[in-house]
Amino acid sequence: MIDPMIAMLFVMEFISLMLAVILVTAWHSFGRPRHALTWGAAFGIASFAWAGQIALTGGQAGNGLLDYGVRLLSMMMWSTMLIGFRQRRGLPSLGGLPLVVGAGALAALTIAAVQGSANVTSAIALLFAAAMMAMSASTMMFRADRGPAECAVITMLLAFAMLHFTAGTLAFAPPAAGDGGLALFRGLMMLTLPSAFTGTGLFVMFLLAADLAERMGRLAALDPLTGVLNRRGFEQAAARAIANARRQGQPLTVVVADIDRFKDINDRFGHAFGDRALCRFTDHIAGAIRSGDLLGRIGGEEFGLVLVDADASIAVEAIDRIRMALGQVEIDGASMPVRITASFGVTGTCGGDDTLPEMLARADQALYRSKISGRNRVTLSAPAAPQEERREWRDSHRVESSPVASW
Q1: What SS3 state is found at 295?
Q2: Is the pTM of this model over 0.85?
C-alpha cells in the first residue's frame, strides 16, 4: 500500500511541474511579462524540492545534505516568487530588506545544517517562506489603485504567511513537547505546505489573467495610430474627471483641437504623411500637458483635451503657448520639412451639472469660431454659432484619414 505522505508528495511534484509549464506558456502567450517567467522558474525550482522531499520520505531521512538541499530549494522558490511580484510592480528584483532577510536565513540554515539540527532547518525554511509571502503581499498592499484580484492575492498571501509562521514556530517544539507536539507539527505541515503551494500557483495565474484583462481594456481605449485615448476611452476618462471635479469643487477645462487644412496635407503629401503629422501633433500636445490631464483622438484630425483643476481663462493662455510652439515643429517625409498649425476651442465648467457632451459642444463651437476667424488661433467658448451655418462648414471640411471615424 502506498504511503499517503509519498502519494501527496508525488501530487505536489506533478502540480509544481504543471504550474511551471503553464506559467512559461502564459509568459510566451501574454506578451512575455518578465514576472510570469520568473514565477514559472519558481515552480520549476519547487519541483526539485518536492523530488528531494520524496527521496527523504522514501528512505533518505537521515541524509543531512539532502535535507539541507531541500530546505535551500524551498527558500529559493519563495524568494523567486517575491522577485516575480517585485518585477510586476517595476521594483528592483532584490534589495534592501529582502536581501538582508535572505542572507540571514541562508547563514542560519547553513549553521543549523552543520550542527545536524533538522528541526531548526525546517523552522528556518518555514519562517523564511512566511517572510517572503508577507513581502510579496506588501508589493501590492499599499497601492491606491489595487483591484479585486490584487486584494484577493494579498489576503491569500497573508493567510498562508501566518500558517507558515505558526508551523515554523512549532518546528522548535517537537523534541520537547513529546508525541503530541510532533503530531501537531506534522499535521500543520500537511495543511500548510500543499495548500499554500497550490493556492499560490492558482492565485498568480488569476493575477496574470486579471493583468491581461486590464491590459486588453487599456488597448481597447487607445487609438492605434497615435497611442492616445480613442473617442470611447476619452469619453469614459473625461466623464470620470468631470464627476471628480464636481465632487471636489474644482475647475476643469475641456479643449477641442483640429489640425488646420488637414485635407490639403493628405491630398498634397499622401495619407502616410498625414498619419505622420497626426503622430507629431499628438506627441507635441502630450509633451506639453500635465500628467493628470487627458488627451484623446476624437475624430480624424480632431483631438480632445481635459485639463483638470484648471480655470478656462488661465487654460487659454497655456493652450495658446502650445499653439505657438506647434508652429516650430517640423514633419519629415516630404521633399522638404513641413510645419502645421492647429485651431483650438476652449470651455470651462459653467455650473455644477456640466456634462461632457455639453462641454464638448461648447468647445466645438469655440473651435468653429477659431476656424472661421482665420485658423491657427485659440478661442474661449461664447454663444453658439447658427447650427445650419456650422453644419455646412463642418461637412465641407470633413476627411477620412485613418481607421478612426470622423466626428
Answers
A1: strand
A2: no
